[in-house]
Amino acid sequence: MSNDAMNHLFTAACSPYRQAGRFAWHFAHGKLSRDPVFKGMLQLGLLPSGHPIKVLDIGCGQGLLSSWLLSAEAQHAKGDWPIGWPAPPVITHVHGIELMPRDVERAERALQSVADRATFEVGNMCTATFAPSDAVVILDVLHYVDFPAQDDVLKKVHACLSPDGVLLLRVGDAAGGLPFKISNWVDNVVTSIRGHKTLPTFCRTIADWQRDITAIGFAVQAIPMNVGTPFANILLVCKKGAA
Hints:
Radius of gyration: 17 Å
Strand content: 15-25%
Number of helices: 8
Helix content: 40-55%
């Protein structure tokens, strides 16, 4: 039952990308099936619950998080949900900000049927306006800007979050040795496959991330988010109201 429900959720989240082209569908299929962060954030109940929420997805790519969260809500409403998992968040709106226009185009084509609940814009996280949100998700993109810019983005996130809001920030651990080097290499390969040029990266150790994010006003919990992968990826669960 639980495995069936998980498979149904995966299929529901991937299926919209068939109308966005072969690349979009294959990328969605590969990412959602292999990246543990999507399953992890639902299985561990990391997003706010108990009231409908607005989500801001920074570096949203082709909108996978939007499809995943909206599909999860729909599956749960049908009673088709993995045994033992908490109920998924009720989403009022997901807004994605993405630097690459081609990714935004794919997101909009795939999720046009839920355009009233999932919107996307071409923008730079360093200059974009962050709308008031209950949850902000930044997966594997903050390291593409330098350290002062990273801090500025995190301060903007803190300011836009509701009093009990949460930031889910996945980063690589610069003290992670070979797994960290592998994750950086794969990151560059995936960036190239998506048709983008590779960029320099600015990485910190998890201890440094925790210290610097705490100084901004968050309470931070580090959760390994690399099950089934050779990477040094850590999900930082940053709670505003608990600071």
